[in-house]
Amino acid sequence: MELNREEQAILNGEQGALLRKYMEILVGIGEFFDAPRLVPVNSVHVPSVTITSLGEGGRQLIENTRKAGLHCRVLTTVNPAATDLTSEDRLGMPEDEYQAQQEVADHIRCMGATACFSCTPDFIGNAPRFGENVAWGEVSAVIYANSVLGARTNPEGAPSAWASALLGKTPLHGLLLKENRKGRFVVRVTTELTGQAEYGALTLFGGRAHPELVPVFSDLPGTIDWDCLKAMSAGLHLGSQARMFHAVGITPEAATLEQALDNRPPLDVIEFGRKELEETMASLDTERSDEVSWVVIGCPHCSLFELRQIAGYLEGKKVNSNVELWVLTSHPVKAMAERMGLTAVIENAGGRIIIDTCPDGFTGRTLRGQGHRTLTTSATVFAHSIGEYSAPHLFDNHIHYGRAGRCLDAALKGSWR
Ligand code: F3S
Q: Do the beta carbons of residue 129 and residue 41 sit within 8 Å?
């Protein structure tokens, strides 16, 4: 891979051993993928900042990076942590783990990253432009950046994302190149879809159909909102290795079906109708009893508009006394919701607004410590694989999955039906 003089000097260790290590990460990836050179990025989103996903090695690297005085050169946001860092009860996270997570958060702040701890960085200002090269991690955010914003990113792991943040570069390969972004097969949507759970099911279905190909979703309504596009982005990777989709008329580089397919015939055309929707939804809705004790909404993190919808739904009502209702969002969105009186409505109804985290990032002790047997959610990711790494099989066949309205209804009734 060709390096310019400054890049080569960093690789030679002229700016310190640690920065050399980060440059080695980028160069190693670039050489593996035959990238011709590094290209500048203006934006990074770092995945895996929970203590579980970091592990001892990752925590040590972040601590060393802070101690070495290295700073992010470009706008850098970070994914959810393993708990709500502002909550008094730490969501039940054991004290030793909480301290460890706070230390990581502290290092991240000192390194100059935006300590948003959210998987919706575009809602808080990290919103790259169409065609811009960026280095994002967190698969749902990566797919959103590529497919909805039209930015270009590969799915970065934490080491390469930090390297890009500290160096302002990424290797030129994969989804940064136009030829790897072409749609290859078409999913025609022939049924009306309502809400995020259904849009998440759509991309899960499309991803499962041809896991190795970039899908093109056609016949979507022009009125689809950002939150449903966010849900589509979260649903795709659960059944697919593709890290982008085209939504015709929505994805900036897919104004038409022909453009999405780069004027080539599709390898397949499949239909997503009522039957496919119901079957996909049913594949995630696995709990056979009506028991509802933990309702979680907000994966990816809720927008202000979603909080407004939830508050509108809950106004003047009370969550069943046997149910915990959690609504996940980011700190800045919660602050705005407070100003608008939305948090008060949700909390008066008995709901709880959680920031900085998501239960999928909890440590196993924290997740098991919630003490729930079932989970009720409108989030495709939670329904598919919550706790996959930290507490495997904890909610296997114990998920109620449906639209947010149905989940909120269940929270009020204390029953799924
Ligand atoms: Fe975000 Fe956690 Fe869902 S990181 S996409 S809320 S699993």
A: no
Cβ of residue 356 lying under 6 Å from some atom of ligand 1: no
The closest alpha carbon to 361, from 53, 11, 33, 12, belongs to 53
Give the separation between CA 346 and CA 311, rounded to whole angstroms.
5
Mean pLDDT value of segment 192-215: 97
Cβ neighbourhood burial of 24 (10 Å; 0-12, 13-18, 19+): middle
| pLDDT at residue 222, rounded to an integer | 87
Domains of the chain (ranges plus CATH)?
5-177 (3.30.499.10), 182-282 (no CATH), 285-413 (3.30.499.10)
* Nearest CA owner, ligand 1 atom 6: 299
Predicted model pTM? 0.97
Please state, in angstroms and rounded to a whole number, the distance separating the CA atoms of residues 17 and 179. 36
Query: Does the pLDDT at position 38 exceed 90?
Result: yes
The whole-number pLDDT of residue 267 equals 98
Regarding the beta carbon of 79 and ligand 1, being less than 6 Å apart is answered yes
pLDDT digits (tens, 9 = 90+) for 156-176: 999 999 999 999 999 999 999
Which residue is closest in CA terms to ligand 1's atom 7?
360
Which atom, in ligand 1's list, is nearest to the CA of 119?
Answer: 1
